[in-house]
Write a structure and sequence with these properties.
By secondary structure, this protein is of the alpha/beta class. The chain has helices at 11-21, 31-43, 54-64, 82-89, 108-121, 140-148, 203-213, 247-257, 260-277, 311-320, 336-340, 349-357, 369-383, and strands at residues 47-51, 72-75, 93-96, 127-131, 153-157, 165-166, 169-170, 179-183, 196-200, 217-218, 235-236, 283-285, 292-293, 299-303, 358-361. A hairpin with a 2-residue loop joins strand 6 and strand 7. The radius of gyration is 21 Å and the shape is globular. The mean pLDDT is 97. Residues 53-55, 79-80, 82-83, 131, 157, 159-160, 183, 185, 196 line the site of pyridoxal-5'-phosphate.
C-alpha cells in the first residue's frame, strides 16, 4: 500500500537520537531548548515552547489565554478533533465557524456573520482556533481584522503548516495571532515521533505556557511567593501537567528541521505534478491564493457531484489498487461525542458538502515518480 503520508528518517536523525541516549540527559536537558530555539529562529518569533504533542500545545495555549468554564471557543468543523477538544479540556463550550468549500479553511463571511450575531447575543468567544487545512494558510489578515474589534484571542492550529508561508512570511511568526501551534507527529511535515510546539511573541503567554507544561511549578526565585531561602525550594502556582517533550524527541526534531525547506519544496513540486496531470476531470484541488505558499501536508482532492463515481467509490477503487487514500476530516460535529453536546447534521452545510467530496491522495517527499504516475493513472481511470 502506498500510504497517504510518510515520515523520512535518515542516518543523521538516527545518529542524533543515539547521541542523546548515550548522554546524561534523557529529559530536561539541552536538546529541548535547542529545538525551541531552532523553531523560533525559523519562524521569526520570540518564544517557542516545546511539548509532547500539538494536542498538549493547544491545551496549554487555551490555558495561558485564560480559557475556562463559561467561556466559548470557536474553530473549524473540518479539522482533527484536537482543535476543539482543547477548549473542552478547559471546561469551555465549543462552537464552529463553517468553511469555504474551495479552500477548506474557515469562511471569512461566515465568521463575520457569526460574530455580528454573537455580539448582539453576548455570546462572543474568548478565542478562535484557526486551522490551516492541509498546510494552506487561512486568510489571517482578514480574520485578524474581524476578530480584533471584539477582543478575541487567536490560536493558529498550524499542525499541517510548518514551512508554509502567508503574505511572504513564515507561518508561526504570530503576526496575526497570539499563539501558533505545530505538530510533529510522523505523518506531519517534520517529526519528533510525538511532539508539538507553541510559538508566541508574548512574554506573558510564553511564561504561562512554560508553567502549564510542567505541573505549574516554578524554580525561579524571582517568582516565589513564599519567603524561602532553601536551595531545593520550588513552588506550584497553577494546576499544570506533565506535557514535556523528551530529549530523544527533541533531538529528532533538531535534526529534521534542517530538511524542512527541502521537504516543503518537494511537496510543492509533487503537488504541482498532480495539479498538472489531473486536469479536465470532475474534480478539483484546494483553491490556491497568491499570498499563500502551502506546506502541503495533504493533497486534498474534491470529487464533484457530477462525476461518474462518488467519493466513496473512488476511495474504494484506489484502496483496491493499494493506494492508501484517506479522508480529512469527518466533520468534528458529526462525532458521537459532539452530537451528545447538541450538534446535528446540517449545522455546517459547507463543511458537510466538503466532507462528501474530499479525498486525500498520497503526498510525501519520498513518493517515487512511478508511484505517483500509478496514482495519477488510477484516478484518471476511475474518474474518466
Ligand atoms: C495532527 C493534528 C493535531 C494533533 O497533533 P498531535 O501532535 O498528534 O497531538 C491537531 N490539529 C490538527 C489540525 C492536526 O492535524
Amino acid at each position: 500500500m502506498i500510504p497517504y503520508g510518510k515520515q523520512e528518517i535518515r542516518q543523521d536523525d538516527i545518529d542524533a537520537v543515539i547521541e542523546v541516549l548515550e548522554s546524561n540527559w534523557l529529559t530536561q536537558g539541552p536538546k529541548v531548548p535547542e529545538f525551541e530555539q531552532s523553531i523560533s529562529q525559523y519562524c521569526h518569533v520570540k518564544h517557542a515552547i516545546a511539548v509532547n504533542s500539538a494536542t498538549s500545545a493547544l491545551h496549554i495555549a487555551c490555558l495561558a489565554l485564560g480559557v475556562t468554564t463559561n467561556d466559548i471557543v470557536w474553530t473549524s468543523p473540518i479539522s482533527f478533533v484536537a482543535s476543539s477538544n482543547c477548549a473542552l479540556y478547559c471546561g469551555a463550550t465549543v462552537d464552529f465557524v463553517d468553511i469555504n468549500v474551495d479552500t477548506a479553511n474557515i469562511c471569512v463571511d461566515a465568521l463575520a456573520k457569526k460574530l455580528a450575531i454573537a455580539a448582539q447575543q453576548n455570546t462572543l468567544p474568548k478565542a478562535l482556533v484557526v486551522v490551516h487545512m492541509g498546510g494552506l494558510s487561512a486568510p489571517m489578515a482578514d480574520i485578524y481584522n474581524l476578530v480584533s474589534q471584539y477582543n478575541i484571542a487567536i490560536i493558529e492550529d498550524a499542525s499541517h503548516a510548518i514551512g508554509g508561508q502567508y503574505q511572504e512570511r513564515v507561518i508561526g511568526d504570530c503576526r496575526y495571532s497570539d499563539i501558533c501551534v505545530f505538530s510533529f507527529h510522523p505523518v506531519k511535515i517534520i517529526t519528533c515521533a510525538e511532539g508539538g510546539i507553541a510559538t508566541t511573541n508574548s512574554d506573558t503567554l510564553a511564561s504561562k505556557m512554560t508553567l502549564f507544561r510542567s505541573h505549574g511549578i516554578t524554580k525561579d526565585a524571582n517568582l516565589f511567593t513564599q519567603n524561602n531561602e532553601n536551595a531545593w525550594h520550588y513552588e506550584q502556582h497553577h494546576l499544570g501537567y506533565n506535557y514535556r517533550l523528551t530529549e530523544l524527541n527533541a533531538a529528532l526534531g533538531v535534526s529534521q528541521i534542517k530538511r524542512l525547506d527541502e521537504y516543503v519544496a518537494k511537496r510543492n513540486e509533487l503537488a504541482q505534478l498532480y495539479r498538472d496531470a489531473l486536469t479536465e476531470l470532475p474534480a478539483s484541488f484546494q483553491a490556491q491564493s497568491t499570498d499563500c505558499y502551502s506546506a502541503y501536508h495533504l493533497m486534498i482532492m474534491r470529487v464533484h457531484n457530477d462525476a461518474n463515481v462518488t467519493r466513496e467509490q473512488l476511495f474504494n477503487a484506489l484502496r483496491a489498487q493499494k493506494i492508501g487514500v484517506n479522508v480529512h476530516y469527518i466533520p468534528i460535529h458529526f462525532q458521537p461525542y459532539y452530537q451528545q453536546l447538541g450538534f446535528k447534521k446540517g449545522d455546517f452545510p459547507n463543511a458537510e458538502t466538503y466532507y462528501q467530496q474530499c479525498i486525500s491522495i498520497p503526498l510525501f517527499p519520498s513518493l517515487s515518480a512511478p508511484d505517483q504516475q500509478k496514482i495519477i493513472s488510477e484516478i484518471r481511470k476511475a474518474l474518466r
